[in-house]
């Protein structure tokens, strides 16, 4: 065993040496930048960073700001709905595609195409589609249903759901592809055995297939959740946080305070809270992925 360890150390030595600059960059830039942000979130920095520590004052002010509370509420509504609907729609689409339908490649390309667009383009497209004077409402009314009303982006009570429509439209294709890859990896003998035993199709999916797709679901959850926390582009393109602050989200709050409000301390505090949200997602994922393998 002792003689094998040096051999493992020198295995792929060239690749390991080539990876050193990338590792140093990750440690210095990403970890260093993160630590710098957290430290300066406890300061009274304004236009420029300054090491005048004020304890938890920035966090107290943050959670006492109505705009921040609204942004958290919006993110929770968007996040829960996006997580559930994206998983359900993506899995259903993948299950349908897995039936070896005709023109599968064409349908898969069409469904995945929105993911190739940037969030800015997606936001602008859906801003037009949901415009009451130009989009869906106008088309339906011109067809004869004059009482039809569908303008979520102009209604402060439901504006976040208008953003949600665009987000699901863009992201469901990626979820479908991930789920389809998992379904195609299941041995055909499992499907045959379920049919021979007379197990209904829905029970086969619920009690056999979905548990086998656990790693795919975990990876998908991490991707969706990280995208939820970083929600910014769609908001800027569709509503710019309006009407008023009805569609405000944490990422926009950070940007506005750091680059427009010239209040770095408040922006750093909000960024740190977003980092905490990401860690809440990443740590359980890492434990499930790697901790379970070690126990196994």
UniProtKB/TrEMBL annotation:
Chain ranges of the ABC transmembrane type-1 domain: 72-285
Membrane topology (UniProt): Multi-pass membrane protein
Main location class: membrane
Membrane-traversing stretches: 20-42, 75-97, 109-129, 158-183, 204-224, 268-288
Keyword Cell membrane: yes
UniProt family annotation: Belongs to the binding-protein-dependent transport system permease family.
Protein location: Cell membrane
Annotated protein name in UniProt: Carbohydrate ABC transporter membrane protein 1 (CUT1 family)
InterPro entries: ABC_transporter_permease, MetI-like, MetI-like_sf
Gene3D superfamilies referenced in this protein's UniProt entry, alphabetically: MetI-like
Classification via CDD domains: TM_PBP2 (cd06261)
GO cellular-component term (any): plasma membrane
GO biological process: transmembrane transport
Keywords: Cell membrane, Membrane, Transmembrane, Transmembrane helix, Transport
